[in-house]
UniProtKB/TrEMBL annotation:
Highest taxon, organism lineage: Eukaryota
Sorted UniProt keywords: Nucleus
SUPFAM superfamilies assigned: Zn2/Cys6 DNA-binding domain
The keyword Membrane is annotated on this UniProt entry: no
Pfam families: Zn_clus
Boundaries of every Zn(2)-C6 fungal-type domain copy: 44-71
Name used for this protein in its record: Zn(2)-C6 fungal-type domain-containing protein
InterPro entries: Sterol_Uptake_Regulator, Zn2-C6_fun-type_DNA-bd_sf, Zn2Cys6_DnaBD
Region (Disordered): 70-91, 287-338
Record field: compositional bias (Low complexity): 320-338
GO MF terms held by the record: DNA-binding transcription activator activity, RNA polymerase II-specific; zinc ion binding
Keyword field contains Nucleus: yes
Amino acid sequence: MRASDLEKFSNLFLFLDGDQAVVKSYGQQDKERAKRPHTKSRNGCLACKRRRVKCDERLPCGHCVNRREKCERPGPRPQAKVEVPQQPSSPSHHVNILHIELFNHFEKVTQFTLAFPEIWETMLQESFKHEYLMHAILATAAKHMSVLRPQYPRYAEAAIVLLNKSIQSFRGTLDTPITHDNCEARLGTSTLINYIMWTELGFLEGQSILTDPEAGGLDMSKDLLFLLGSGVRQVFYSAFPIFKEHDSPFIAVGKYHPCDNLQEEADKRGTKWREIMRRLIYLFDDPSYQGSPNQPPSPSTQEASPSPCVMDLDTSAFQSPETHSSSSAAASPSGPVSEWTESCNEDYLQRIIERTKGPVSGCTASCDEDYLQRIIERTDNSARSTRYILDSRTARSIYERISQRLAVLVSFIPEDGSEMVPLPVERQLDIERYCFSFPTLCIGPFLPLILENDSRALVVLYHTYRAANRLLPFDKTWWAVERAATMEKLTLVELKARGLSADLY
């Protein structure tokens, strides 16, 4: 017996258990028998593979030498093709966890910080049909999150990316007509982009006024808030006939007039808004406020102007047509209406009045016709309605309407700097709507006054931002905080650098 066998049985003992013999093991257990190592031939010759024998993989191999056969090796094995999942053709279709977070934030938080609460639930539903609206919603939520959590730069970065995607896809729709299926989505997208533009101050980068305030040099020509603001108004006018057809929530937005409510509140408090308005309009006619140091007055603004003492006129004439109401139309315009209509292009007036006697059909009607039709429905006075639409063609008339609204707002701010008497919650909401809508009022020939840095426009901007700073609840109106504070300061600095005063008292 071999030594290995003796070692194997050295720990076995035989015991008697009654009539039975029992073998028991003590000490080290038997080791499992190790498997003989085996290496499989993977590069054998074809002859060995055919005979299913192990090839020694030499060239030629031993089997082929013994059998005097040709020893051939197989060709290289083809590499397996790995299928890589195709990415979506457009990154805009890619949804990630951040998008879900932003959508949830808009639904739960952001929408309640925006004006016009009657529309946002509809916009959330419409966003699943229109890519540009979904991106606008996500971009607005991302911007809101960047304000709430500035320590996380991913939100600010996401806001930029999503806004660009929204604008790109939105731009592609502008050549197509506004229809029942897209009218709400288009206006909702325009409104959200306007909110984001309130937070955008990139146009100030590199301006000399930031480094040398005494020298001035404020340039408003690239402020997207005003360049894009009028687009909201234009979309609303184009879509309004369709809104009426299917009772859109945007109808409530068009019928609500915050300026009327604020004026009524100002009259209750006995504020001096009429004096403030008179001062604003006086500045429009003051040659020292016309133009800017680098830009002469625009020819379109050099119009024959009535006396600065305009409060003899009906103040409703200074309201935009869509905010005119019976509460503010007690007086008649200065001079008989017939005298005014005779001074206008009678053919043009007659043509428009005839075309707006019946309801405006679809979205084929021009902006002027739809505008006028809605005014006639509310005022029942086609001559006054036509006056409004033609007056809107002049910078001064628009300035007067803006001045009337702004004067009411400014009148709530105490002259002595004391604490303001709190306004009712409803009026706070009216102020919020006014401030947000202000850029959409700067249309027609008044818009160039802003973009050309005209001093009269800067006075309006200064007091608008000043009122926003004093009157808005910034814990809610996050979109206005930075712009209101920054632009109030810079517009006043610019006026002082020009040797002008913004005082209205």
